[in-house]
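Expect chain and fold; thus:
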Amino acid sequence: MWVIRGSLPRGDAGPFHEIDSDERRGAKIQSAVAPSDTAVASAAARDGVVPRRELFERLAGAACVTEVSAPAGSGKTFLLRAWIGAAGLADATAWVAIPRGGVDPQGFWLRVLDALRGTATGAPLVRELTGAPDLDGWSILERLLDDLRSLEQPVWLVIDDLHELRSEDVLRQLELLLMRAPHELRFVLATRHDLRLGLHRLRLEGGLTEIRASDLRFTAEEARALFQTAGVELSDPAIELLEARTEGWAAGLRLAALSLAGHSDPERFAAEFSGSERTVAEYLLAEVLERQPEDVKRLLLRTSILDQVNGELADRLSGSSGGERLLHALEENNAFVSSIDPSRSWFRYHHMFADLLALELRRTAADEIPSLHRAAAEWFDQRGHHVEAVRHAQASEDWELAAQILSDCWFRLVLSGHAATAHELVAGFPTDVAAGNPELTALHAAVALSRGSFDEAERELAVARGGLASVPEDRRARFEVVLGIQRLDLARQRADLPAAAVEAERLLAPIEGDALEHLGISEERHAQALISLGTAEVWTGRLEDAERHLDDGIALARRIEQPYLELSGLAHSAMLANFRTFSLAAERSTEAIQLAQRHGWGEEPITGVAYTVLAGAMVAHARLDEADGWFARAQATLRPDARPAVGLLLHYARGHLELVRGRHAEALADYRTAERLAQQLTSPHALVTRVRGQLLHALVRLGETKQIEQAITAMHAHERENGAVRTALAELRLAQHDPEAATTALAPVLDSATGAANPTWVVAQACLLEARARDALGDAGATERALEHALELAEPDGLLLPFLFQPTPELLERHARFRTTHASLISEILSLLAGQQPGAARGEPARLAEPLSESELRVLRYLPTNLSNQEIASELYVSVNTVKAHTRHLYAKLDAHRRGDAVERARALGLLAPSSRRS
C-alpha cells in the first residue's frame, strides 16, 4: 500500500496528488527499474504528473542512498511521488514526512516504523511499537536493525523534509541506520540543505546518488508539459518567458499554472508574471482564495488558527456543517490542503497558504480570533488533547481557562514523561497573569523545583497557599492536593525528612468529596507519596523504613499500571541497595534501566538515578570502563544542581573512579562538588561524612598534610569516628611513617560491625591499611589475619574497590602462599593490579558449558558455609525463593545434585578457593 506518515510537502509546491486505491494495490517488485515510456505516459495522463524521464532513470539506477537536496519549492516531493507511481513502487515504499519545526526522537522513529510496517515486505518483519514519551531512539534503532536482518526484497524508505530534523541524536541515529541497514533497504532523502550524516563516506565509496537544484530545474519542454496537464494553453514564447523568469523553479511554475487556469488573458498574465518568491506566492494564493465559494472561504479563514483540522472541528469553528466534505474536496482539487493520516480525516494547509489565510483573517475578522481560539481550546480539552487546549486558550488570552486546563493535566503530563512540555506551557503565561493566579503560581513552583531552585519553589508555594481563598470553591480541594504533592517533592529533593513525613501523611490520608476523583490521581498520589517518603528516608539513612515505603509504592504503581512511578521507585530502591551490597544495587538499577528503555525514558532524569547507582556498582567491582559509560549517561540525563542528593552520589562515586586511576586532583574536585551539593540539603545526608573522609584520602595522595590535620580538627566528634575519616587518618599516619598511630586510628573501625555507618568496603579498606601497618611493625600474624578478614568481607559481593584504593600486591602474593581460603579472589586481584580488567563474571572458566550469572556467583560463595537458605537470603538482602532458584540453577550448570557436590565442582573449576582443610 501507499504509506504517508506526517505532513505532505510544503515548500515543494502543489498541486498535490494522492495515489488512488487501485494504485495502492499495485504488484510487488523485485528490483527498481526505469519505468517504460508507456508507463510514464500513462501515469502522467492519469495522475497529472510531469514525466521527467532523465530524473526517473537516475532514481531507478540509484545507489543505496539517494540525496535530493534543493531549496524549498524545487519539486523534490513532487518528483519522488511521480517516480514512485510511474515505477509501480507504491507497495514497496515507506514515506516519512518531517513536520515543520521538527519532530522529537519518539515521533521520528514511530513514523519510520509505521511507514515500514505499511509496506508489503516490511509488514511481517517490523514489529509494532507503542509510543512512549521521549522514546529512546538508540534502542528502537537497534530493534529495527534486528527486524530488518531477514529483509530479502527491496524496500524504499523516503524521508521528506529531512532538513526539519533538529535533534542531533536523531541525526546520529539516522546516520547509523544508513551505515548498517541491509542492502535491500534503499534510502531517498529529500532536504532543503545538506545535513551531517556521514554521506561523504558513501560518496567516496560510490554508494550515494545526488540530485541537486540544478538537476531539478524545469526545462521549457517540462514547463510546457506542466501547463498542459493543468489545462493551460500558452504560446511557446510565453512558456519560455515564464521558465526564464522562474529559473525553472517548480513552485513558481506550478503556482503560475494554478492561477492561469481559467484566466481571461493568460498570455498577458504570463508577460506580467514577476517579483520575489514571497510576493508571487502571496499574490497567487490570494487569487486562489478569492475564487473559492463563500462557505469554503469561511471555513478556510476560521480554521487557519489550527495546525491541523478535521471535519468536526471545522464545523465547530465555521459554525456550519459539511466541513469534512469540503476538506476532502479541497484536497482533491489540489487547493493547498493535504490529509495527514491514512484515513484522511485530519488535514493541514500548505504553510504559505496557511500564512496567507491567517493574514486575511486578521484583516477581515480580527475581533473573532480570540473566540475562535477559545472554541478550539474547549473542543480539544473535551477530547483529552490538553496540550493543544492550553495553547489555544493562551492564544485567546483566556488565562483563567488556560490555567485551569494546565493545572488539571499537569500531573498526568509529568507522569507520562512530558515535563518539558508542561514547563513550556507555563512559560506561555504573562508574568502579571501568573502572579495573580494561585494555580499558576503553584506550577511555577514546580518548574523552579525541577531546576533545583529550592528557595524560589518554597516562596512560590507559600504565595500559592496564601491565595487559596481566591481559588473557586469547586477546585479548592483539588488545588490543596496539588500543593501537597509539590511540597512533598520539595521536601524529598531537599532530603527534609520531617517535612516529607508530614506531607506524605497528609497525602496518604483519605480526603472527603470527589476532588481526587475529578483529578484522577487518588491512587497515583498514594504511590507518589510512598515513593517520595521512602526516597527521603534513603537520603537520611533510615533504610528499613525506606525499604518498606519504596516496596509498597512500587507494588502500588505496578497494580495501577503507572510505569513512570514504578521507575521512580525502582531507581531509588537501587539507591537503597547501594547502602548494602553493590551486587544488589547493580541488579536493581539494571531493572530500573530496562523498564525505562521499554518506555522510551532513557533520557529522563529519574533514569539518571539508576545510571548513577549502576556506575558506582561498576567501580566497586573494578569494571572501570563500564563505569565510565554509565557515569557519562548519568551526567547527560541529570542536572546535579537540580537534584543535589543524587548529584552528591554521582560525584562521590566518580571521585572513587578518579582516585583508583591515580587522578587525585580530579577526585578531590569531585568530592568537593559532592560536599557542596550536600550543603543544599535540609537534613544531613547519609553519605556526607563519607564524602569528607574520601576527600581526606585524596588530600593524602596529594600530600596536603596541613589541610588534612586542619579538616579533622574542625570536624565534630561523631564525624571523626566515621570509618572513612579514620581510614583517611590511618593512611596519613602511614604516609608519615607512623604505623603505630595508624593502628590506633583503625581500631574502632575494625572493632565495629559492618552496616550503614561503616559499610563493608570501608571496613575492608581498614583491614588492608591494618595489614600494611602490622607488616611495617613486623607482626606477620596480625598482617595475615587482617588480609584474610579483608578477603572474607570482599568475596561474597565480588568487592574489588578496597584493593584498588589500597593496593598491596606484595602482601597478597605472600598471603596466597599461606592457608588462605580465598586463593581465587587473590589471583583475580593480582591480575587486576597488573592491569587486567575483570570480566563480567569473575573467575568463570571457559570450560563451564553455561556461564554463571552474577547473582548465581554470589549465592555460590555462601555454599561452602553452614548458612541455611534463610540466612543466605538475609546476607544477600533477597528472598528465600530467590536463593532457592539460584541454587537450582547452580546445581544444573555444575552438574551436581547436592550442596557438597556443587562446592567441590566449583572448586575444581576455580570458581571457589580450595578448601583450607588438610587432606
Q: What stands out?
A: The chain is about 65% helix and 5% strand.
